[in-house]
Write a structure and sequence with these properties.
Blueprint: H1 28-45, H2 70-90, H3 95-100, H4 117-122, H5 135-139, H6 154-161, H7 174-195, H8 199-210, E1 228-230, E2 242-245, E3 250-252, H9 271-278, E4 294-295, E5 298-299
Antiparallel strand pairs: 1-2, 2-3, 4-5
Helix pairs in contact: 1-7, 6-7
Length: 303
């Protein structure tokens, strides 16, 4: 179902089974744009009532098409992740080569056949800001309240995230496969922004913060202060994710162009500030030194 196609985070997936080394993915940014355009068209064509989450009782006959069944889709999906892992291992030759071939590598790490969709997704290049949400959290309907009305193909996307093999005989077209894949990315992001505000979620993000996974502040006088991901809006598709520096209290673009394509609503406007309120010992002293422009050693007069 998902072989030889771009993944939800905008990077192509490898081929299925042991053939991952022979299949090179297309440029991730183009795949991301193509999938997101397809989802935008779907949302424009679908009325608010039609874009509500699918009722499990209504899954039969809700989608139709001449392609593969959902039962085979889950199996092909795991095979594609296995192929992506093989492709990643073959592409690691040197620091320079891995940087040059970054667009051709699907994942930064994978454990093979038993990798869950969540682990696979979080290991995609550009998705380093995401932490892995516990399955128990996702399976609790209370935590997903209101999301079925925001995500098309909600039930299919949720099954994909939880690696649930559908027993239905429905078939999907290629466009519907892409929509379900993109919907799964969107649904996971909306779940993620809630999860990182919980104690478990903050603990997971704390480990990433300590490992500098979110990057450092590019401001010289912040001396490499670790940053935190932040969104400028809580509304999906409003802006991309930024990094917040707790020392100068300003926001910056991520250094990676892949990370710069992630929706800021998947991290929200609250997280970094609640994080620093929770872990007060991590709050740095405010930056007091500022750059002073000079001409021939003299300060420039400000009128």
């Amino acid at each position: 179902m998902y072989n030889e196609r771009g993944g939800p985070a905008g990077v192509g997936r490898g081929g299925g089974g042991g053939g991952g080394g022979s299949l090179k993915s297309e440029i991730g940014a183009l795949d991301r744009k193509r999938v997101n355009d397809a989802l935008d068209k779907h949302l424009e064509k679908t009325s608010p009532s039609a874009s509500r989450g699918l009722n499990p009782k209504d899954k039969d006959g809700r989608l139709s098409g001449p392609s593969t069944s959902t039962g085979r889709a889950a199996s092909d999906h795991r095979d594609s992740r296995s192929g992506a892992a093989a492709l990643s291992k073959n592409s690691k030759c040197s620091d320079e080569e891995s940087e040059t071939d970054s667009e051709g590598s699907d994942v930064s790490g994978s454990d093979g056949d038993d990798t869950s969709w969540i682990s696979w997704f979080c290991n995609l290049r550009g998705n380093e800001f995401f932490c892995e949400v516990d399955d128990e959290y996702i399976q609790d309907d209370f935590n997903l309240c209101g999301l079925s009305g925001q995500v098309p193909y909600y039930d299919y996307a949720l099954d994909l995230i939880l690696d649930v093999e559908s027993s239905h005989g429905d078939t999907f077209t290629e466009e519907q496969n892409e929509l379900i894949e993109s919907a799964a990315e969107m649904l996971y992001g909306l779940i993620h922004v809630r999860y990182i505000l919980t104690s478990k979620g903050m603990a997971a993000m704390l480990e990433k913060y300590k490992n500098y996974d979110f990057g450092r502040c590019p401001r010289v006088y912040c001396s490499g202060q670790p940053c935190l991901p932040v969104g400028q809006s809580d509304i999906p598709r409003s802006s991309t994710v930024k990094i917040y520096c707790p020392k100068c209290e300003d926001v910056y673009y991520p250094r990676s162009k892949y990370q710069g394509n992630i929706d800021g609503a998947y991290f929200g406007t609250t997280f970094p500030h609640l994080f620093l309120m929770t872990y007060r010992n991590l709050r740095p002293q405010k930056a007091v030194q500022n750059y002073v422009p000079r001409v021939f050693g003299f300060k420039i007069h400000k009128p």
